[in-house]
Design a protein that fits this description.
- The protein is an alpha+beta fold and 377 residues long.
- 27% of the residues lie in helices and 28% in strands.
- It has 2 domains: 5-242, P-loop containing nucleotide triphosphate hydrolases (Rossmann fold), CATH 3.40.50; 256-376, Nucleic acid-binding proteins (OB fold (Dihydrolipoamide Acetyltransferase, E2P), Beta Barrel).
- It has helices at 43-51, 93-105, 123-139, 155-167, 185-202, 213-219, 237-242, 247-252, 263-269, 372-376, and strands spanning 5-14, 17-27, 32-36, 58-63, 66-67, 78-82, 173-177, 205-210, 222-227, 230-235, 259-262, 283-286, 300-311, 315-322, 327-333, 345-350, 356-358.
- It has a 6-stranded mixed β-sheet with strand order 6-7-8-3-9-10, sandwiched between helices. Strands 2-1-4-5 form a 4-stranded antiparallel β-sheet, with helices on one face. Strands 15-14-13-16 form a 4-stranded antiparallel β-sheet, with no helix packed on it.
- The relative contact order is 0.12.
- The model is unreliable at 372-377 (pLDDT under 50).
- Adenosine-5'-triphosphate binds at residues 14, 19, 37, 39-45, 211.
- Adenosine-5'-triphosphate is lined by residues 14, 19, 37, 39-45, 211.
- GO terms for molecular function: ABC-type transporter activity; ATP binding; ATP hydrolysis activity.
- Residues 5-253 form the ABC transporter domain.
- InterPro entries: AAA+_ATPase, ABC_transporter-like_ATP-bd, ABC_transporter-like_CS, ABC_transpr_MalK-like, ABC_transpr_MalK/UgpC-like, Mo/tungstate-bd_C_term_dom, P-loop_NTPase, Transp-assoc_OB_typ2.
- Belongs to the ABC transporter superfamily.
């Protein structure tokens, strides 16, 4: 089961403070959509509105074209997985996973601990719930732990229980709010791949909130980048990286960060750049891939100081500073530059087709003559 989700002109204020401004987003059935942005930009608030956990101040939420603003969270056919896992500590894993089904399928007296089992006429429903719990636990590989309590599980295992508790309901939409941020770096990478695989297997619509752009970029079909309560750009990971529409997006996406320099400064580094840049001052941004350490006939040279080298195994990150003080980074093959080169001057070459131009407001400028690189990205 899967569903399209539409957010139309959502706004939210807490007192005088406006947290969300006119946010619209159309999420396709079965899509993995991430909401990413710096702390406080409003991601969690938007997700909570979608779940029905907080009312919006304006705008509408619909699923498959039907407004759901009047529905409480339990009636929205949406499951949410939180950063904190939100497991019941006194219940076993089996009971935790089964809770949403027991709430939905069993009458209140039959849900009571102990004596509830004596309530007549519920056996087939209970068997169905037991089987659904086992199926969900198997899907996230925690079946052997079904009789443990959460305290006897690792952080990663608890997160799997929280996922299984969401899966067991077969919701049309999964919402996840920073589900991996309490895990260590290594486990985050493993769980990232598992959540992406789970999404493919379930085919459901996922809306995933994270402040970690790498997480968003590696898992999602599309990523909505939020800044100051607005969606600045919603696009595929490749488009966001290679063709950001706004300087804030360009800076937020990509690691190491995109380098930026004013066109005036770049021209004073090498006057040869003047013909490819607009006459009015602009911000020129370029990814590490557009900083080359080998001379090439059609690229212009600038001189830089090598500040630092980071060894990443097969490749090096080479951090450089131009005469103007601008910092940039290049990638190089391991062994290409000896560590003793730190502090020394060297030449780097900048292919103009790698430039992205932004105006004084940070909006991307159309520059057809230097756009090839972005389109190829
Ligand atoms: N219940 C509330 N009352 C008042 N202000 C709130 C409330 N909930 C959120 N805010 C404010 O709304 C803004 C957005 O919060 P939100 O939690 O949505 O951000 P976020 O992007 O998810 O951040 P983070 O990544 O840090 O979780 C913040 O400035 C926050 O202080």
């Amino acid at each position: 089961m899967t569903a399209a989700v539409q957010l139309r002109n959502i706004s939210k204020s807490f007192g005088e403070t406006q947290t969300l401004r006119d946010v619209s987003l159309a999420i396709r059935p079965g899509e993995f959509m991430s909401l990413v942005g710096p702390s406080g930009c409003g991601k969690s608030t938007l997700l909570r509105i979608l779940a029905g956990l907080a009312p919006q101040s304006g705008g509408t939420v619909s699923i498959d074209g039907t407004g759901i603003d009047h529905l409480p969270p339990s009636a929205r056919d949406i499951a949410m997985v939180f950063q904190s896992y939100a497991l019941y500590p006194h219940m076993t894993v089996r009971q935790n996973i089964g809770t949403p089904l027991r709430m939905r399928r069993l009458p209140a007296p039959a849900r009571l601990p102990g004596i509830g089992r004596l309530w007549p006429g519920q056996r087939s429903k209970r068997n169905g719930i037991d089987q659904a719990v086992i199926d969900a636990a198997r899907l996230v590989e925690i079946e052997p732990m079904l009789d443990r309590k959460p305290a006897a599980l690792s952080g990663g295992q608890r997160q799997r229980v929280a996922l299984a508790r969401a899966i067991v309901r077969h919701p049309r939409v999964f919402l996840m709010d920073e589900p991996l941020s309490n895990l260590d770096a290594r486990l985050r990478v493993t769980m990232r791949a598992e959540i992406a695989a789970l999404h493919r297997r379930l085919g459901a619509t996922f809306v995933y909130v994270t402040h970690d752009q790498v997480e968003a970029m590696t898992m999602s079909d599309r990523v909505a980048v939020m800044m100051d309560g607005e969606i600045v750009q919603c696009a595929t990971p490749t488009q966001l990286y290679g063709n950001p529409c706004d300087l804030r997006v360009a800076r937020f996406i990509g690691s190491p960060e995109i380098a930026t320099i004013s066109s005036d400064e770049l021209i004073s580094e090498n006057g040869g750049f003047a013909p490819v840049l607009p006459r009015d001052p602009v911000t020129v941004a370029f990814r590490p891939e557009a900083v080359l350490l080998n001379p090439a006939a059609d690229h212009l040279e600038v001189s830089a100081t090598l500040e630092r080298i980071e060894q990443l195994g097969p490749e090096l990150l080479v951090f450089l500073r131009l005469g103007s003080g601008t910092r940039l980074c290049a990638r190089a093959a391991a062994g290409r530059i000896p560590p003793s080169a730190e502090g020394q001057s060297l030449s780097v070459w900048l292919p103009a087709r790698g430039f992205m131009l932004f105006d004084a407001n940070g909006s991307r400028l159309d520059a057809p003559h230097i756009r090839e690189f972005a389109d190829a990205g």
